[in-house]
């Protein structure tokens, strides 16, 4: 399925007059509109290889068909997203699900689609077919050294594959923990995990990072060995300068103040990256911005403030990735919606009047501070996000174009109705 430039141009020219009317209005309202547009053009979101098929729960899975059957088709799907929105410029691979047999061919395909490789993900939460030891009772934390060794070796193998491809980071998410009180010695589990991570860390090339992802619960329901940002930060600090915390928005206990967590991790120079999604209850993995758009904006508000305070490059210094699962929506439509929501929250954060906010904070003017944030959140900046796409050669309305070209039907035609993407 290919969308040609002229098709995008003709779609855009139909919408142009209306778009320009809206843009003119926002550009007058927002003093740094041009700067925001340029930053949006530079900003890219990594798409997870495991989110391109229909997700499911233990109660069932209802595919919409045409799912990518292999790594090549996953790359093609992301290339299509990127063509539509010019903001999905990288792919995050999961090993062994996405192990590339022909590395040069995969690299060529990624380059041809205008993409790059985001963080590599290891998998020690499932047992693979010909594996010697089981991860039923954990991997890097395991009481048996042989199991830990197997999990360490797997992570080192993922780094090796990532080096070949040209990735620069490894994300470690562990299901390790315990289901019942008494099952685990917390201190020993932590120490085993730390030692295992240290061996993995030692295998990192000089220009690589490792992201330690935390998660409050699931699949373990009593304790998780990397259960919150404090534990992740402990590991990252003990590991060294190449280790960072990864924040997945769905991995907190209810009502956690994620924006404050982000601010402090940034202050410590230990925020590595994100898994964007949204949730109402737990690790729901819903479309970014679909439940708590104000929270997403507040997170970006801290990100912009903190990155600017540290002189960081917004687009390059952190790993911006989506981690989502799609049960009822078309995965590609859902990803377009997530990217749009992330871009919008970023634009809103960039539009905050920082000088005025700092002054309100210094004067303890609480009402004024709230007004400043809500002014940014409530101004409709979607025309700026659309303008960034337009200038980057993408579609003014990606989802509409996706539907107009019957992309899903075309994918079903070429791949079949009963395809299953590897992954979750
Ligand atoms: C699991 O809950 C984590 O969010 C992981 O980052 C991710 O979903 C997983 O690695 C994909 O299987
Ligand atoms: Zn995640
Ligand atoms: Zn998760
Ligand atoms: Zn999640």
Word description of this protein:
By secondary structure, this protein is an alpha/beta fold. It has one domain (about 45-345): Divalent-metal-dependent TIM barrel enzymes (TIM Barrel). The chain has 15 helices and 11 strands. It has helices spanning about 5-30, 35-40, 70-85, 105-110, 145-165, 185-200, 230-240, 260-265, 295-310, 330-350, 355-360, 365-380, 380-390, 400-405, 405-415; strands spanning about 45-50, 90, 115, 120, 170-175, 175-180, 210-215, 225, 245-250, 270-275, 320. The protein has a 6-stranded parallel β-sheet with strand order 4-5-7-9-10-11. Strands 1-2-3 form a 3-stranded parallel β-sheet, with no helix packed on it. Strands 6-8 form a two-stranded antiparallel sheet. The longest helix has 25 residues, at about 5-30. It starts with a helix and ends in a 9-residue tail after the last helix. The structure holds D-allose (AOS) and zinc ion (3 copies). One zinc ion binds next to loops.
């Amino acid at each position: 399925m290919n969308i040609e430039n002229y098709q995008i141009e003709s779609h855009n020219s139909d919408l142009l007059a209306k778009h320009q009317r809206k843009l003119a209005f926002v550009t007058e309202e927002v003093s740094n509109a041009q700067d925001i547009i340029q930053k949006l053009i530079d900003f890219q979101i990594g798409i997870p290889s495991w989110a391109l098929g229909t997700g499911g729960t233990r109660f069932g899975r209802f595919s919409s068909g045409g799912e990518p059957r292999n790594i090549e088709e996953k790359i093609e799907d992301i290339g299509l997203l990127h063509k539509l929105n010019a903001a999905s410029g990288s792919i995050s691979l999961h090993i062994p699900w996405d192990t590339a047999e022909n590395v040069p061919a995969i690299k060529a395909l990624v380059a041809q689609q205008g993409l790059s490789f985001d963080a590599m993900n290891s998998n020690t939460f499932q047992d693979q077919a010909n594996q010697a030891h089981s991860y039923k009772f954990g991997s890097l934390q395991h009481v048996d050294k042989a199991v830990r060794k197997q999990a360490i070796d797997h992570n080192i193998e993922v780094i090796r594959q990532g080096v070949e491809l040209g990735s620069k980071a490894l994300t470690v998410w562990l299901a390790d923990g315990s289901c019942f009180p008494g099952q685990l010695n917390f201190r020993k589990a932590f120490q085993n995990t730390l030692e295992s991570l240290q061996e993995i860390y030692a295998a990192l090339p000089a220009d690589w990072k490792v992201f330690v992802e935390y998660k409050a619960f699931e699949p373990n329901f009593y304790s998780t060995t990397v259960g919150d940002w404090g534990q992740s930060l402990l590991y990252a600090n003990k590991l060294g300068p190449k280790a960072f915390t990864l924040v997945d928005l769905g991995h907190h206990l209810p009502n956690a103040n994620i924006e404050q967590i982000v601010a402090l991790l940034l202050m410590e120079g230990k925020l590595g990256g994100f898994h964007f999604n949204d949730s109402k209850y737990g690790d729901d993995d819903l479309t970014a911005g679909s439940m708590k758009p104000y929270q997403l904006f507040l997170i970006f508000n801290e990100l912009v403030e903190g990155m600017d305070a540290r002189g960081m490059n917004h687009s390059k210094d952190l790993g911006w990735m989506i981690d989502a699962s799609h049960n009822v929506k078309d995965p590609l439509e859902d990803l377009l919606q997530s990217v749009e929501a992330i871009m919008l929250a970023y634009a809103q954060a960039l539009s905050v009047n920082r000088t005025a906010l700092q002054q309100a904070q210094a004067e303890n003017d609480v009402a004024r501070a709230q007004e400043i944030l809500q002014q940014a959140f409530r101004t409709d900046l979607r025309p700026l996000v659309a303008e960034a796409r337009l200038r980057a050669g993408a579609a003014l309305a990606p989802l509409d174009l996706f539907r107009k070209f019957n992309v899903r039907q075309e994918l079903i035609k070429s791949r079949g109705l009963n395809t299953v993407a590897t992954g979750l």
